[in-house]
Amino acid sequence: MRTTPHKALGAGALTVAAVAALVLPGTPAAAGPHSAPAACAPAQVIGNGGFESGTSPWTQSPSTLITSRSGQTAHGGSSYAWLDGAGSTRTDTLGQSVTIPSGCATATLGFWLHTDTAETTTSVAYDKLTAKIGSTTLATYSNLDENTGYVHRTIDVSSFAGQTVNLSFTGTEDSSLQTSFVLDDITLDTSDGSTPPPADATRTPAAPAYTVNLSSDTSGTVWTGHENVTFTNASATALGEVYLRLWDNYHGTCDAMPIKVSNVTGGSAGAPSVACTALKIDLPSPLAQGRSATIGFDLGITVPSGADRFGHDGAFSFIGNALPVLAVRDSAGWHLDPYTNNGESFYSLAADFKVTLDHPNGLLVPATGTSTDTPGSSGRTVTTATASKVRDFAWAAGPFAKISGTSAAGVPVNVYSVSGISSSSAQSMLSTAKTAVDAHAARFGAYPYGELDAVIDNNYWFGGMEYPGFVMDLVSTTALTHEIAHQWWYGIVGDDEYTSPWLDESFTDYATDLAQGKTGSNCWSSVSWASGTEKITNSMAYWDAHSSRYSTVVYGYGKCALHDLRRVLGDTAMAKLLKDYATAHWYGVSTTAEFKAAAQAATSTDLNSFWTQHRIDG
C-alpha cells in the first residue's frame, strides 16, 4: 500500500489442511465413510462457521441463506445464515459434512441463534428450526424461542466421535406470520479431555464503533480531545483485555510520543509496548462472547515535520494512522506487530467512525467518510465526518486548493492540492480519480464509501498512501489509480498487512494494470529470485530485512503471478473469480489459503504446480 515512487510508477473455500478435518458433502473420507484419526487432536472442525469466507463448505437450499443483506445483523463479522422469515410456507436447509475424530472425550457443537417472529402465540410452535447430525435430532427451536438478540446454544455430540456425519439445520415455516432463524459463529470443538481445544479463530473485538472529538491549534498540527470505542467480543474465549494501536508513535520516542492517551475509562491502561505503538487496556471483568463494552480516553496528537503519511509539509498536515484503533485477536493471538516504514503493519476489522474536527476557518479538512461543515466558535469550523465499515480513519488539514467532480457512476470526488500543484495537474488528477474509481467498481463491486478525497503533494517521498475514502498521492496517473484500487484491496477486502502484504499490494497493482489496459504479457519471464527463501507471500518481517526486494517481488512479481493465473483460468473466469471473491469477503478479511482455494474452485486444472512455480505459499 505504501508505494514508493518506483513502486507506484513501475511495476470461500477450504484449505488443504482444513479438508483433512472436514469432508465436503458427497465426498467420502479417504479410508471409508466413518474413518478418522486414531487419536484425538483437539480441534475446531466446522469450516467457515462465521460465514465470512463465502459459502463453502456449506450446502444451502435455497442458495441465498448465507448473506450479509439488510434485515438481520451478524453476531460477528458481516455475514450470517438467515433461514425462513418469509411469512409463507417454506423449508430452508443448511448443512455441511464434518469428521469428528475418534478418541475424543468431548465434542461440543456451539452456535449463536437469533429468533424473531411475528407470531403472537405464547403456546404454539408454528415455525421450527431443527438441528440434526445425520438422522439424529439434536434440538428443536421455534417461534416460542423469540429473543431480542443472539443466544449461544451448545450441544454435546461426543457420541459421534469417529464418524463423518452431516450437520444440518432445517427451518420450517407455516403459511402466515414470519419467523426468522438467524445462525452465526457455528463451532464444533473436540478435545481428548485433558487438552483444551485450540484458540478460537474468530477475529475479535468485533464491530468496533469509534466516536472522536478533536480540536486543533491554529496550524492544524496539534489536536486534542477525546475518543470512545465500543466493541463486542465475537469469540467464545472471553476478552480480559484489549490493545490500542498507537501506530504513529513510531515517528517519535517513548519519551516524546506524538500520540498520547490518558485518563482511560472502562479499563486500566498498562505500560505502552512494541516501541510504544501498543497500549494494553485491562477490562474490569472478562467480556463473554456476544457482550459489548466501551472504553474512553483523552487523546493528544502532535504532527511532526515531514511530507509523510503522518507529518506536515509546511502549512499542510497529513494525519494518517493517528487515531488509536483496536488490535485484532484471532487464532494466532493478539496481533501486535511492529510498525514498518517500508510498507504496512496495519490489520484491523471494519468499523464505524464518527469524527468531529474543530479547526480554524482557514484550514480545509478532507477526511475519511462523508463530511459536513458547520460554524464553530469565532473564526472556527466544525467538520463532522462519518464513515461506515472502514478499517481506519485519516484526515489532512491546511490551506488546500480544492476542486470537485462526480464520476460517471455517481461517486463524488474531491482533489485537494498543496501550493505548487498547478491547476492543470489538479484537473488531471480529478479526471484520473473519476475514471479509476468507476473502473475498479465495475470489476470488483460498487464503491461503498460515499465521497472520495485525494490529497496531492509532489513532496511525498513514498509516492502514495491509501486510507478508506481518502488517498495521498503525487501527480501521477498510475500512482493514483493504484491507491484508489486499494479501496477494494485492503479497504473493502481486508487482510493482515504485516503477515500477507501481497494480498493488498499484488492485487492492487494487478487491478491498476487492468484499469490501464495492460495485460502483463510475458512479465513472468523476467522473474529472477534473489534466494530460495524469497517468496511473493513473505511477511513484512522478511521484507524489512530485504527491503531492496520488496517492491520488485510483492508489487512486480505478485501482479505478474495474477496475470499468469488469468491466462490459466481465462479472462472471463478470472474476472468472475475476483468479483465473487470480493463479494464473499466484503468488509471481511482475506487470507492466502482462502484465495488459493477460491482460485482452484474456478478451474478444473490442478493449480498446485502453479502456486509452487510462483512461490505463493499458505
UniProtKB/TrEMBL annotation:
Residues 446-613 form the Peptidase M1 membrane alanine aminopeptidase domain. SUPFAM superfamilies: Metalloproteases ('zincins'), catalytic domain. It comes from Streptomyces dangxiongensis. Pfam families: Peptidase_M1. This is M1 family peptidase. Residues 53-75 have a biased composition (Polar residues). Gene3D superfamilies: Galactose-binding domain-like, Neutral Protease Domain 2. Keywords: Signal.
